[in-house]
Known about the structure:
The complex is a heterodimer of chains A (301) and B (300).
Chain A: H1 3-17, E1 22-24, H2 32-35, E2 46-48, H3 56-65, E3 71-74, H4 80-83, H5 85-91, H6 94-98, E4 105-110, H7 124-128, E5 135-136, H8 141-153, E6 158-163, E7 183-187, H9 191-204, E8 209-211, E9 216-218, H10 224-231, E10 237-244, H11 248-260, E11 264-269, H12 287-300
Chain B: H1 18-43, H2 59-68, E1 73-75, H3 81-86, H4 91-98, E2 122-123, H5 131-143, E3 147-152, H6 159-170, E4 175-181, E5 184-185, E6 188-189, H7 190-193, H8 198-205, E7 209-213, H9 216-226, E8 232-237, H10 257-267, H11 271-293, H12 296-299
Helix pairs in contact in B: 1-2, 1-10, 1-11, 2-9, 5-6
Amino acid sequence: MTSAETIREITRKHLTENNGVILGQCLSAVGWVGGTVPEIPDHPNMIELSMDDTSGCGIAVGYALAGRKPIFICRYQGFMWYNAADFVNYAAKAKEMWGYKVPIFIRSIAMEIGAGPVAGGSHHGMIMRMPGIPVCAPMTPEEYRSVWDYFMKHDEPLYVSESRKGFAINREMPDITHDNADITLLPISSARLNAFEAVKILEKQGIKCNVIQLIWLKPFVVNDKMIDLLGNSRFGGIVIDTDYENGASKCIAFDIMQKTNKPTQVIGLEERSAGFAPHLDNPPPSTEKIVNKVRQIVNRH
Amino acid sequence: MKSSGLSGTKGLSKMFSKETSLQLFKKICLCRNFELNVKKAFDTGRMPKIFIYLSLGQESAAAALSLAFPDVAQFSQHRAHSLYLCYGGSPQKLRDELLGLPIGCAGGMGGSASIHSPETRMFGHDGHMGTQVKIGLGYALGSNEKTLITMGDASAEEGYVLGAMGEAVTKKAPVLFVCMDNNLSILTEVKVRRSWTMVDEAMAKGMPAYDLPDDPWIIMHLVERVRNNLPAFLNIHYCRELWHGGTGCDGPPEWNRYELVKTELILLGFQQEVREIENSAAHYVENLWEDVLYPIKERA
Lengths: 301, 300
């Protein structure tokens, strides 16, 4: 079963068995959001929103207040700049303000390539700075099941930073660990795919890499495994993000450095706007870019 | 101000029972006395200098809505003390909230602007103007409960308010939208800010919409007409008696609805009851604020 099929089945069950709702724009359009939405267009719990990017999020918050545990879909993660307001300012604060439970499963999908200045990469960094809203970036079927279970057991909004590249994944992706690695890669979201490719190339060049995949971005816990593996990595680590570097990745790198005393660098989207032409795009770090970054660090020493 | 046509409909008050009209006046007096005591506490330094948004001048509309559209979920924003009180929110908890106490209605987190009352299904507001419209709409759709959503004439201009109103019509939401229109955003008049009206907007989206004064009997009459034909929109013109924030005053209001209501009740023959209600409300609220305004240790 692929991740897309997993999400679709979770959603179907939520609509039909939990009286949950799913809200979003063009849910039933071609592809049904990459095959992640069950094809039941007339179901009363499937709420097609108008194209107003500024009111849909508030409507979802209202559904959550009414106890409907909504799944909200933002088809392009860049659109969250308009859609995020009520999630971070109301849903995330409501428990501390008034004791309300406002659980919303916010599926925010990164298109990643060829989408121009607005609709390209991930934007989980803008959400992470606000209190009261955990952030995760699952890719595999089991990771989706895990974050869904978390959501159902909690009463807070959950920001799920998705990548279209993850929808086709039909296997789990274990971390790569060595006792004495040269460096530890800590990729997020679809950067995990390129990181694994980079590791194969680097291995052939005699550079041994750990890969610790980051699924929960906030709260971010520097666990014992990270401490051990980073501690034993000769040249520290690199957080590899699908968002701009001045956000999630630098926060995570800071936390890691605090706990491990190992230098931890970051690479993510370049500090420039993306264009539509392929040569002007600003995609997540490619395999080649990750390889070069690692070699640069290793060779410097 | 837009005072033309705001004098009310002659004889409409007679359509309502004596009990209803006196209940209306009780609520008005409660709100008015409460706000006057907040002002006194604020002006004399007896409460924290938080942002406060007093609803003096708005109480007739709030009272009328609570009588004609009772037992509903409510989503409001700042300047909602009167709505809170008229719908049955605890005056003690509101006082304590304004004092920043943990026993306040929002534990001190809400202050004046973000109050709530779970007991009466009044939901809190996050401080961004107009967000209560989209959130309230979602609540109404998700719960299928009748819902009152109030806004000011300034927050009504937020793009997402207009988007949510359109969505309410599309989804046939059981929502009564009310714009409390004092013609001012702080001190900037509506005509400076826009060339269109909210009633035209609402009607263009396909819901019944009315421009009306804050005459409580007109409000009750119209709400009774639309409450089973939702969504609907009311734009209620009223006079804000004090500054947008704080307790300052720029002079008497263009019209004083409190006095107009009182006069109408007296003309209806309820002079004695009016006097008793006024005295009773004043006494109740003074007692409520006594320990704040006149601490025991200072009374000697």
